[in-house]
Amino acid sequence: MTAALACTTLLDAATWRERRQAHEERVGAWLTPHLARRRRGEKHPVEDFLFTYYSHRPAQLRRWHPGAGVVLRDADPAEFGRDYRADAAGVTLDTEGVRARRAESITWIRPLLTATAGRPAHLGCFGMHEWAMVYRQTQDEVRHNAWPLRLTPERTAEVVEERGVRCSHFDAYRFFTAPARPLNLLTPTRETQHAHEQPGCLHANMDLYKWAYKLSPLVPSELVADAFALAREIRTLDMRASPYDLAALGCPPVRVETPEGRAEYATAQRGFAERAAVLRARLLEAVPA
Fold first, then answer.
1. Which end of the chain is more exposed for a tag (fewer CB within 10 A), N or C?
2. pLDDT of residue 198
3. Residue 72: in which H helix or E strand, if any?
4. pLDDT value at position 121?
5. How far apart are CA 125 and CA 261, in angstroms?
6. For residues 228 and 62, is the Cβ–Cβ distance under 8 A?
7. 222 contacts 97 by C-beta, under 8 angstroms
8. Which of 104, 94, 90 lies closest to 67, judged by CA?
9. Are β-strands 84-86 and 91-93 bridged in parallel, bridged antiparallel, or unpaired?
10. 281, 230, 244: which is closest to 50 by C-alpha?
11. Could you read off the pLDDT of 132-152 as tens digits, one per residue?
12. What is the DSSP pairing of strand 91-93 with strand 9-11?
């Protein structure tokens, strides 16, 4: 057996088809209600976020990939796309070709994941990034203006000023209102993202979904779906702790303007950080340097 084949996993037809079906059914439970809302022209600020903010299309999420180093018996490469090759053993991903084409992404994503994993988790932001996105705006001006704010705009601004903002994530910070930005302890930029990203940040952990799909098909689709599932839960906490009143959507508020709410938020944030650490390690293992 060659060294290359020694690192290969061989799946018989029954096994890989079962995995593919399980993935499609799992993802379908998320896609079906989203696509139904889209057809009706309805918006859901929690459930639709991962489909509108991120660039991975529903059909791409549904499509199953086995990951690098997996040989599929009795498969047709045309079923899986241009990056797959067939030989006497079966169908497998052209790992070297994909890595060469994705070299720029890999060399940006891996150091980010490694740097983030090497830092301690900071849990003292209490979700103020969402509050900074509506700071000093009226109900009509806020991003999700179809949903009411829990507090008056004046009281919302007071909470931001009382608690302060400690956001390290550029893609959250860039949505802050102009008067909120000077209140943040940091001024994160895309160029400093590797230096600022930390494993307690909800948005950094939500972004594991983005890094997973950007590394696809080198990573198995089950890992992409695991990252999506975690991001979906994180988004729910993100919006429950936000200034919006989303109780009608089954999202009771986490009142971070109170000590009890902040304690609840930090506990959930710690749990997400622990789960994200496992996914981050799996991504690094799936795409070695």
1. N
2. 97
3. strand 70-72
4. 96
5. 12
6. no
7. no
8. 94
9. antiparallel
10. 230
11. 999 999 999 999 999 999 999
12. unpaired
Q: Which amino acid is at 286?
A: A
**Non-local CB neighbours of 177 within 8 Å, separated by 6+ positions:** 132, 133, 134, 135, 136, 137
Contact 68, 218 (CB under 8 A): yes
1 pLDDT more than 80:
no
Q: Which amino acid is at 154?
A: E
- 3-state secondary structure at position 25: helix
Read off the DSSP letter of residue 120.
P
Report the amino acid identity of residue 8.
T
Token pair 């508020």 in the structure block, residue: 253
Which position has the higher pLDDT, 8 or 66? 66
Q: How many helices (H) and strands (E) does the chain have?
A: 14, 4
Residue type at 143 in one-letter notation? R
Q: Tell me which DSSP letter residue 71 carries.
A: E
Whether the full predicted model's pTM is greater than 0.90, yes or no, is yes
Token pair listed for 75: 């498969």
pLDDT of 5 over the 80 cut: no
Tokens 């990252």, located at residue: 227
